[in-house]
Structure formats: C-alpha cells, structure tokens
C-alpha cells in the first residue's frame, strides 16, 4: 500500500465488544465502502474473525495488546512510508505523529478511584500524549469535546464530534408489540462509574415483583459482588451475544442506566430503538444525547432511583406510548452513515492538507 492509503489500527478486533469497540466496528464497515483507500492492520490474536475477513485485515507483528500497538504497529507504518493512521478506541502509538485518534471520554481523570492504579497511570501518560501528537481528535459528544479541550488544553478546531448510533441488529423497524416481562434491564461494563451498586440498592426499595437483569462482564473492581446480589430480584447474566441481548431488550419493561459519568452511552439508545422506556441519570451528556426522550433520576440516591423505577411501572398506556415514541424519534437523530460521513470529511481534509 502507498502513502495515499489510510491505515486503521484494528486492535479492537482482538477485544470483546463493548461501546468503544462497537464504535470502531460500525465506522469501519462504512469506511470500507467510502471513497477513501483504507487498510486495516491488527495483531494475530483476532477474536472477531468474520469481521476481520470482511475488512480484509492484515495481521502483523509478533506481539499483542499494548506492546503490539507501541512497537509492532509503528514499525510497520514506518516501513510503509509513514501513512496516516486512524485510531478508533482511545489508545494509539505514543511515538507516531501522523495520526487521527479517538478519545471517547476522560473518565480516568474524572475519578481515578474508578480504576486500578496501573490503568490510571497508563492512561494518565497515554491520553494527554495522544491528544498532543494527533493531527486531529475524534470524540463522541459535545460534552466530551468540551472536557478534552479544557482538561487536555486542546484547541476546539482540533476536535470533531462523531456520534455513536444504533447497530442494525438492534432495531425494531416494525415497532411490533411484544410480550413484555416484569424486569428492568441494565447493560454495561461492570465498573464503578456505571453505578450498579446504587441501582442494586434501589431494587431493595421496589416491589419484589420487579426484577433486574444485569448484562455485562464483572472485573476485579466488582469481585466483591459474590453471592450478595444473586437473590430473587437480581439476575446477573454476564456477557451475552448480540442475539441474546436483542431478546432481552425486546421483553424488558424498562431500561435503567444510572451512570455517574459517560462519553455518550450506547445501551440506552439501543433500548429506545427496541421500544423500551429508558431511565438514565441526570448527567450532562445524557441531556445532550437524550433530551426529553427519557426519564431522569438522581444517580446518588437509591431511594429516588427506586421511585423513578416504580413511576415507569405505574405509567398509563398513554404515558408509555409517549415516551416510547419519543425514544424512536431520538434514535433517528443518530446514524452510523452520517457519523461515518463526518469522519471521512475530516480524514479527507487532513489528506488534502498534507
């Protein structure tokens, strides 16, 4: 490949799919069909082999993880004429300047206690350096853009907002009415900023007939959950496939996402696309992404959160129809096709200026 090609850091194909990887996957699919000449490169420990084949990914290097990204990837790029590199998942080579990098949020700066010391200090070194050397920065909301510009001292014109959207598999195009079950659903990585502890406490103030299903992988931060939450009201499902998640969305009475901090928040948008009433915390980014299409709660009060949950269960048919229809309208504000167009335009500007 020549220098005219844009290379994409496809390390995300070696990772389980959470919101960050979903962003990279969906944009990659659209970039493949764009006017850009694009090449994906990844370590050899691919887990998403079907997508890797679709993108015609080139497997390079001997290392994996951070070592691959910091050693093998920049060496490969140097050997191929130092082309423009697009990084879509927060991390990037520290010494490679001809790059466009995505910073989804600054959660590690918002509250270091949410993360291990090793993670915090790695990101404390990595993210400011990435922001400094990148030719351009992509982020996923205006709130995140403001934080990046303020806390990392980046000029506003260097940052573009490329919103997340809903993947094709999480759509209820026919808006069909399904057999709803009496559970609320939570989907997300089980780290402290997702505020699952408060949600679990809130469940103790609700009716015993209301169940909570939790989808997400537990990590060392939540190793003390143990059997304490495996009681009648709460079902911890762990990591599930997209097909299983789709069914969980379809049958949920409500979706609850009480995060203390987010860069965007894809799961509530997925729930809206399936016609599920959504309750989120009243943090600024959710006001940007969801406006009046959801119900809001105080993420720091389990009692108030419980009241908000019960209010959804007590809604009349007219009230439910109203919030569901507002959800469908809100989902239509976001499109992977439109987001990809913004990204392509920024990449073309950089290519034409070089």
UniProtKB/TrEMBL annotation:
GO terms for molecular function: glycosyltransferase activity. Residues 175-327 form the Glycosyl transferase family domain. CDD domains: GT4_MtfB-like. Keywords: Transferase. InterPro entries: Glyco_trans_1, Glyco_trans_4-like_N. Residues 18-166 form the Glycosyltransferase subfamily 4-like N-terminal domain. The keyword ATP-binding does not apply. This is Glycosyltransferase family 4 protein.
């Amino acid at each position: 490949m020549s220098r005219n090609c844009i290379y994409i850091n496809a390390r995300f194909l070696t990772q389980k799919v959470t919101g960050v990887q979903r962003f990279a996957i969906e944009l990659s699919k659209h970039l493949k069909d764009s006017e850009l000449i694009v090449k994906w490169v990844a370590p050899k420990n691919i887990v998403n082999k079907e997508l890797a084949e679709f993108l015609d990914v080139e497997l390079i290097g001997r290392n994996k993880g951070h070592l691959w990204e910091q050693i093998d990837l920049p060496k490969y790029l140097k050997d191929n004429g130092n082309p423009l590199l697009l990084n879509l998942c927060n991390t990037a080579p520290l010494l490679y300047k001809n790059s466009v990098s995505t910073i989804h949020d600054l959660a590690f700066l918002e509250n270091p206690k949410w993360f291990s010391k090793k993670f915090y200090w790695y990101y404390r070194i990595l993210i400011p350096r990435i922001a400094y050397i990148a030719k351009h920065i992509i982020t996923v909301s205006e709130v995140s853009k403001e934080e990046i510009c303020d806390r990392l001292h980046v000029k506003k014109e260097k940052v573009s907002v490329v919103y997340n959207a809903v993947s094709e598999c999480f759509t209820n195009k026919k808006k069909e009415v399904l057999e709803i079950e009496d559970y609320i659903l939570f989907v997300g990585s089980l780290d402290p900023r997702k505020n699952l502890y408060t949600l679990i406490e809130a469940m103790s103030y609700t009716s015993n007939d209301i169940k909570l299903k939790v989808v997400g992988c537990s990590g060392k931060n939540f190793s003390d959950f143990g059997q304490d939450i495996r009681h009648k009201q709460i079902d911890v499902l762990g990591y599930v496939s997209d097909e299983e998640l789709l069914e969980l969305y379809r049958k949920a009475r409500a979706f609850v996402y009480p995060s203390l901090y987010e860069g965007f928040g894809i799961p509530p948008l997925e729930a809206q696309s399936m016609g599920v009433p959504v309750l989120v915390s009243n943090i600024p980014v959710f006001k940007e992404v969801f406006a009046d299409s959801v119900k809001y709660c105080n993420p720091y009060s389990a009692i108030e959160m419980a009241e908000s949950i019960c209010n959804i269960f007590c809604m009349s048919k007219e009230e439910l129809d109203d919030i569901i229809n507002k959800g469908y309208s809100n989902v239509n504000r976001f499109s992977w096709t439109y987001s990809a167009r913004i990204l392509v335009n920024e990449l073309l500007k950089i290519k034409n200026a070089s």
